[in-house]
Amino acid sequence: MSRRGPRGSVVLAALVVLRAVAGLSGDGRAVWSKAPGSGPVNESQLFLYGTFPKDFLWGAGTGAFQVEGGAEGDGRGPSIWDRFARTRLGSGGGAGGGSDSDSYAFLEKDLSALDFLGVSFYHFSISWPRLFPDGEARAANARGVRFYNALLDALARRGVQPVATLFHWDLPLALQRRYGGWRNASLVGLFNDYATFCFRAFGDRVKYWLTIHNPYLVAWHGYGTGAHAPGEAAGAAAVYAAGHNLLKAHSKVWHNYNINFRPHQKGWLSITLGSHWIEPNRSENMMDIVKCQQSMVSVLGWFAHPIHGEGDYPEEMKKKLLSILPLFSEAEKSEMRGTADFFAFSFGPNNFKPLNTMAKMGQNVSLNLREVLNWIKLEYDNPRILIAENGWFTDSHVKTEDTTAIYMMKNFLNQVLQAIRLDEIQVFGYTAWSLLDGFEWQDAYTTRRGLFYVDFNSKQKERIPKSSAHYYKQIIRENGFTLKESTPDVQGQFPCDFSWGVTESVLKPEAVASSPQFSDPHLYVWNATGNRLLHRVEGVRLKTRPAQCTDFVSIKKQLEMLARMKVTHYRFALDWASVLPTGDLSTVNRQALRYYRCVVSEGLKLSISPMVTLYHPTHAHLGLPTPLLHSGGWLNPSTAQAFEAYAGLCFRELGDLVKLWITINEPNRLSDAYSRSGNDTYRAAHHLLLAHARAWRLYDRRFRPAQRGAVSLALHADWAEPANPFAASHRRAAERLLQFELAWFAEPLFGSGDYPPAARAHLAARARRGLAGAAPPRFSEAERRLVRGAADFCALNHFTTRFVLHEQPRGGRPDSDRDVRFLQDVTRLRSPSRLAVVPWGARRLLRWVRHNYGDVDVYITANGIDDPALEDDRLRKYYVEKYIQEALKAYLIDKVKIKGYYAFKLTEEKSKPRYGFFSSDFKAKSSIQFYNKVISNSGFPSENSSPRCTQTQRNKECTVCLFLVQKKPLIFLGCCFFSTLVVLSITIFHKQKRKFWKAKNLQHIPLKKGHKRVLS
Amino acid sequence: MGWDEAGAGFEHPGLWFPMLGVLLLGACQAYPIPDSSPLLQFGGQVRQRHLYTDDIQETEAHLEIRADGTVVGAARQSPELELKALKPGVIQILGVKTSRFLCQRPDGALYGSLHFDPEACSFRELLLEDGYNVYWSETYGLPLHLPSPSSPYRDLGPRGPVRFLPLPGLPPAPPDPPGILAPEPPDVGSSDPLSMVGPSQGRSPSYAS
């Protein structure tokens, strides 16, 4: 907290000098020209769990004019903002109009609010016209002095540090009238007089002084755009003259404090500088980066360069503004330089509005606080930084449930933590802005920025903590972000019979075999010299071989990919409309069934077992046979019967090979497609449930005894968390969403045989309030018997976790009767299609299932993410690892009976989000290897554990098999070569032998006499 | 004695042949040798090609099957076609992007059909010595030629076949590496500048594809 420099060692000093020399303005550019992040799963970009430094200062802030009220009572003079609010904003005069927080009267309530938060400092401002009604520091208003003394004493009693701003925009109106405000250089001396009084009166208790709050806004909007008081649009010269005087006023006050007060008061003094942040339109485009630098320099650099830099305006500004920009003499420069004991920085909405007055230079504004801190570090030699203002606003109708403010704060604060921990930026304190709702300058009372809600029309002006106050309190208590959502990774394995799969959507059956040359019995002659056509030779019929699975090229492709994935199971869907084009059994497409049978049987040869989905509708394609679609689709009860017949056919034709069946994929998404009215949605869902139950009963009765398989339906099962953990309504909304999304189908099957009572109760409550809503159909007793228990396992397609907001009940849209909205937590890792990576959500979902439906077998039948990378898909790898890890925790710790995990999905389509382990042109991505490893380890075993399953052995065998299968031609030719060699060598050997014998025989010729002897 | 010795000499091959047999049988079980199709000279039984022609006097053109079912000659390289053998010399032509088969009406007019009709959509492929191909409707015996730009549906008048050059598709343009495109700038005038709050429609990736 002391000024840097003198205490530093020689080395450090040398380093500082070096940096100062090298670090002339323009270094900040490096922030934009950094190498593009190495992928989305970059440790330095992920949400950082961790704590702030031990002595980090936590605070909340207010501006005097915004909250004090008591305008012209008690001896306070009018300020320029009183006049501006009355004349320009039409509000009954910001302060004192009776519609503010009235801190002057309710000081105790502010102090209680600070107690609630547990802050270490309170950043407030002293009202110049409250102490000196006409601005001139002659006789101070005693009641004003008493007020601030009371505040400071109360803070001291609580151990809360005061951080006092001398000037937060409420210039005494008299000074504006007499001198023309900050355009006039006499303000420099007047401000110094006022400051001297404050140091004298309060400096014994105030250790952190801030002279001026955001001088950029005072000069730019006060004298340039007229958006702030005094509301002058006086041109560039006036703007820069005002800025010049503000700078000089600050410098004078710093020297005054440094010489006259610091020796005995031992405090620190700075000026709060505010800024926006900006990103180049095209990253790595040098022109755009230069423009971004100009934009930052012309706002933050304007004040920061003289004070924190070399004592003069930035070169870019001097070049551009030539005669307009006032000049600093050499003496003034040296007086200006270094007049701040730390860097006080403000980052909030005021620097971003109005958007059209910003110096954007055609680039994109950004809310990245971490990058702007990096810019400050690079430009101003890594100063110690106090964030003197940060936060965002909510609309005025938002009372205490300021959910978006929580996530804005979370986002900003984590960026600060990243800046401290990863970028080594010396941020030593943070001010949440603001403590209370109040007057929001040009927005008057149309926005709210408080951590505490104040009903401006009430008499007592109670300060009610908003959700963001609860959230901030929690962060202060923990001094950062501690990991609570997810427990540490575990080591362990899934059982040996666990099915490790990959999911593919509908396989379009190949209509025509791709290699007809083996099945065409005709002989052709190529008329090579004539018309070059093939001529069939009549009367000749060749022998053909029977049709076989290798006739289908696409199957080979799939098997190659599956073999590479080393999965044990392959989940794919049949195309109902292809198998039964007419919707009934009158026309069965045998060719399609044969194709599917081939997929299954060929897979089994590689010991890849199938999980077959009978019906997989998609957003673009309902997948119903056309006649059924025309007769009303799922709104027609007969579709359920048609489905039963179709399922029966599939069970009969494929059931000997298929042991895992999914009847319908995501009926909860399909029913949404019937969105003309809520009634339609529920009716479609009803018929889907009945269709599934009929198919299950059929299997149970007719096929299970022989086939011994299992049948269920796969639900789209994203987890739901309350967006605002401090609002009971959000917790209820999250549970309600689960009731409508999951329990709607799960409760009839695994539970009572009826729709979840909680959802019914919600709909009834809506109906009582007269909101347009739908009544779900009722199950007849027969239907209830049909449905209840009609599933052998629970199949969940889980992709992400939704953060759920409660929405005020409305009528109208059919999906609105759930009264929920979703919130995207921007601090979380997410995919290009905005799918948040929330692994622990999977475990909570699995626990929820176990809690509600007992010890059912659970299959995760789809789990995956879109990763833009075509080869090195690190996001997918991260996702798969973390989600399997959570599934393992659920299995080992929560005893959820997980039987299988199916990664989503095998291949992706062109120009669609990239969900595939293989690209649309069948190129393998690197996450496959990772998944391979998890499969062969059966999870995440500890290093010294011996493999429990013989699976590894089987895999070893299979590598040999695979080698044999892949190198078949080579082996074949090798064998041919080898046998030829053997035959040849034998032949040669025998020839030699015969020659030898011949020679021997010839040798024996003279012995022919002995022939008799031999024969005898 | 001599016969005895000779017999002993044949004992070795007697051991070798069964072994060889086992080896050979093991190696060539029942699986066909992969990639042995005679059609592979085309680079596969299914070819991804653009059908290019410069027979239309004015201009060069690529055959394009549009999503609305019309068939035109496009000046720019059109989306890929999939040429797949149906039987010797006969192919089907599928527009990959639009999922429509190229088909011909009895009057010779071309259209793109979502449904494959073997009568209307089979074409006989004839290879010419200059590398160009001509195509004839298998059923009607009509040559395949592009409609004239003025009347996209009809192109009457006796004309010979148009020669097409099946060009392999250009390698796809490399996709934009992630992170280069600037993200949407925040809406700083809003209380939700990062557009966090959205509609409640829970989309499922598995329902989208």
Automatic annotation (TrEMBL), chain B:
For whether the record's keyword set contains Transmembrane helix, the answer is no
Q: Which PROSITE patterns match?
A: HBGF_FGF
The answer to whether UniProt assigns keyword Signal to this entry is yes
Which Pfam families does its entry note?
A: FGF
Q: Where is the composition biased (Pro residues)?
A: 168-186
Q: Which residues form the signal peptide?
A: 1-30
Q: Which SMART domains match?
A: FGF (SM00442)
Which GO terms of type biological process are on file? positive regulation of cell population proliferation; positive regulation of cold-induced thermogenesis; positive regulation of D-glucose import; positive regulation of ERK1 and ERK2 cascade; positive regulation of MAPKKK cascade by fibroblast growth factor receptor signaling pathway
Alphabetically, the GO molecular function entries are: growth factor activity
Q: Which stretches of sequence are listed as region Disordered?
A: 164-209
An example Gene Ontology cellular component term from the record? Answer: extracellular space
Q: Which InterPro entries match?
A: Fibroblast_GF_fam, IL1/FGF
Alphabetized UniProt keyword annotations = Signal
Family to which the UniProt record says this protein belongs: Belongs to the heparin-binding growth factors family.
PANTHER family, per the entry: FIBROBLAST GROWTH FACTOR
What is the name of the protein in this document?
A: Fibroblast growth factor
Its ancestry begins with: Eukaryota, Metazoa, Chordata, Craniata, Vertebrata
